Amino acid sequence: MSQARARLQLRAATGIHRGDRQYQQDRIEIFPHPRAQGLILVVVADGMGGRSGGRMAADQVMLTAQQLFERFLPSQEEPLDLLHSLVRESHLMIKLSAISAEQEPHSTVACALLQPDGHCHWAHVGDSRVHVFRAGKLVVRTKDHSYVQDLVDAGTLSEGMARNHPMSNVLTSSLGTTEDPPLASDSLQLQADDVLLLCTDGLWHYFVDAELGSTLDRLDPRDSCEFLIAKARQRAMGRGDNLSLAVVKLLRAEAPAAPPKRPPKLHG
């Protein structure tokens, strides 16, 4: 591992708001690994399926993520294998919980594992997103599993039109459905000043990527969360969904101070 990669620090924050809904179905967590210092797992889930069903599904994603991450051995296991297991097992547990639930619980998920050297791995299902920004510019944004994303990919709809399409909330895949979810994942080596953003559609719906990048570049993670939530609430005009986000900024660690030199011996 090179010295430049090893000397990175993380500054992180999360934000969550009920929006204009009667209940909160989003969940967002940043889990530190219990044994590997500097290794974190970031998870966001947007539950669906009625008041109890949606929250049950999102809670199941978080419980599964925490349990798998606590058992994860970074020296022996592959990060993407962990994320794929998180997707598969959350999907299975949500399907099992639906047997006794009055509603049909479903959830999206976006998750990212960030290693101490800045190597980042992520996976997602549905329309909760993972973004990476560098100097305020978008480097990575996951593609939604949604009806409008299929139209954008086919060239029949622009990105701008997709955000305001009447069927923008129709998903083609989520956790807990009859079909197994896709294992959509990737990795990237991050560097100092890069920013990782995970969020639900209740937040990203109100911003273009350039606005997100500019905010994350100017503000620290805590202030970014507060500003973006406030702006999303303003733009929702009383019709906002649950919204949640996690912001992680990578900083170059300061070199440790050199030990003081011993004064020279004087001989009189």
How would you describe what is shown here?
This protein has about 270 residues and is α+β, with helices and mostly antiparallel strands. The protein has eight helices and eleven strands. The protein has helices at about 5, 50-70, 80-95, 145-155, 160-165, 200-205, 210-220, 220-235, and strands at about 10-15, 25-30, 40-50, 105, 110-115, 120-125, 130-135, 135-140, 185-190, 195-200, 245-250. Strands 2, 3, 4, 5, 6 and 9 form a six-stranded antiparallel sheet that branches. α2 packs antiparallel against α3 (about 80-95). The longest helix is centred in the first third of the chain and has 22 residues, at about 50-70. The protein is globular. The termini are far apart. The model is unreliable at about 265-268 (pLDDT under 50).
Number of helices: 8
Q: Let me know the average pLDDT.
A: 91
Biggest sheet layout: 6 strands, antiparallel
Helix content: 25-40%
Question: What is this entry, summarized?
Answer:
This protein is of the alpha+beta class.
Q: How is this fold's topology laid out?
A:
Layout: H1 3-6, E1 8-17, E2 26-32, E3 40-48, H2 50-71, H3 79-97, E4 106-107, E5 109-114, E6 119-125, E7 129-134, E8 137-141, H4 147-153, H5 159-163, E9 184-189, E10 195-199, H6 201-204, H7 209-218, H8 221-236, E11 243-252
Antiparallel strand pairs: 1-11, 2-3, 3-4, 3-5, 5-6, 6-9, 7-8, 7-10, 10-11
Helix pairs in contact: 2-3, 7-8
